[in-house]
Amino acid sequence: MNITTIGVWGGYPKKNEATSSFFIEQDGFRCLIDCGSGVLAAVQNYTELRKLDAVIITHYHPDHIADIGVLQHAAMVGMQLKEWNTPLPIYGHNRDATGFENLSYKGVTEGRELHVSEPVRIGPWEVSFCETVHPVYCLALKFTANGKSAVFTADTAWKEELVDFAAGADFIAAESNLYEKYLGIIQGHMSGRQAGELAARADVKQMVLTHLPQYGELGEILASAKTAFSGPVEFAEIGKTYRI
After folding, report:
1. Which whole-number Å values give the CA distances from 158 to 64, 113, 189, 227, in the listed order?
2. Residue of 129, 104, 99, 126 whose CA lies nearest to 114
3. Domains of the chain
4. Which of 115, 129, 190, 201 gets the highest tally of CB atoms within 10 A of its CB?
């Protein structure tokens, strides 16, 4: 299982970069996790768009879906040129009816429903879900294959159930949008310390921090994570591939 960081930012991207997104590949199957601002341009550094086999959306905030429309335009051009296998499946929950409906477009993309209690088979992985704590309905993801697992928390405040959900994972991409001083002030996100506590209590093998803020001294977030988690931890690095 190869996991490549496409973007790391929460809310909006820094210049020439992208909001939080990952590209996961195994046995030749390629899946994009979230498709927010800047993602469609950035992911082309690592794959041709026509070689994407699936996209999965954690929730319908713009920093996670902003580039869905242009992905659909790319698929439409690819279909017209007979270069794409369409429709491209885009997986997302249906708790936001309009958001889910917009995943399907003119036969070139097809929305496929996700339900928190129903794991699905996507390529080589069993993908399971945990509802997070966020202002809109959002799903954390766990990809499992060949005895290995990777967890993506998506956007969330602390939630006890995530400990069991992530238990024993080989890799976790944990959102860490908050400095400690903003806990209880900004809702729906975790701090670095909380991300570290999640990784430690879940006994994960390694953690990367993502969905980062554009302000402040980011080193504080990493240092806070390290106070709670003694295992390997770093900021998700754009373009870096993690192999598990």
Report:
1. 20, 26, 7, 17
2. 129
3. 2-243 (3.60.15.10)
4. 190
Return the residue matching tokens 């670095």: 192
The whole model's pTM is what? Answer: 0.97
